[in-house]
């Protein structure tokens, strides 16, 4: 694999749906031990269950003595070594992110041999649940979320982070129905700028026989970060139609269809949905080969975003929190 990345291998799938992998339910009050920035410690009052992930379990939590609410993500401490490493990377990356469309990381602490992450609360579920419930979004709504997610991707890439697992189920909705990227479980650090210079210097001392040319070319970026643009293309298709484009019963078939770009838009004759030419063109450009995919800035300049109506945030809040629109 190209050495300009730390990811090295294909991501390890460490998800488990077995209940025994999850931490036990927390007590009603969870105590954060004193730390250098909060000498008196803190108590979180645990509220309702928000959801279960691969190994984590997430509860609504209120900081005692305040009205502040958070998502408490609880992870069991005795994890397999691989899992522990993955979790450490996730923590390191997530804790450095600060963007209006990324779930804010507040703190992490250990209590009764479980790790607690204190995260920004997203009380309206995931984008996937909402899109399913509404059987697809309108084009103005897709513009609203498309711009938010493209902005978050631009921010991550500028910080040298590739997310690698962007999907509607990993994008949560805050109380105003804004999209927030959560779960950095498969994210990887891309070596850029200074690190690259150091690497170039050190590799050039040895033999360059084995070094891919894109690593040695100054100022030329690899295309690894473009995996996130592909995912955004899939997300935009899925927001418009309520199904991902390559959905199939086997993973092999999904891969085959993705490789062949074998997807179809709903038939306007038989389906209620009208999908504009601009929307279709946007998705097609994002599903090209990596070196042809647009960067986030170019995405939001596409006619789909420029020429159509963009709803106000306040209108989105009231409209999208409700159940399906009348015509479904
Ligand atoms: P895992 O990393 O194990 O996949 P997730 O990050 O997907 O865990 O979290 C598990 C579930 O917890 C999610 O599916 C979601 O329902 C809920 N959840 C996670 N983060 C938040 C958050 N910030 N606000 C509200 N709910 C959340």
Automatic annotation (TrEMBL):
Residues holding ATP: 73
Protein kinase domain span: 44-305
Domain of life: Eukaryota
Residues covered by region (Disordered): 1-40
Protein name: Cell cycle serine/threonine-protein kinase CDC5/MSD2
Organism: Echria macrotheca
Residues of the whole record sequence present: 22 to 349 of 1008
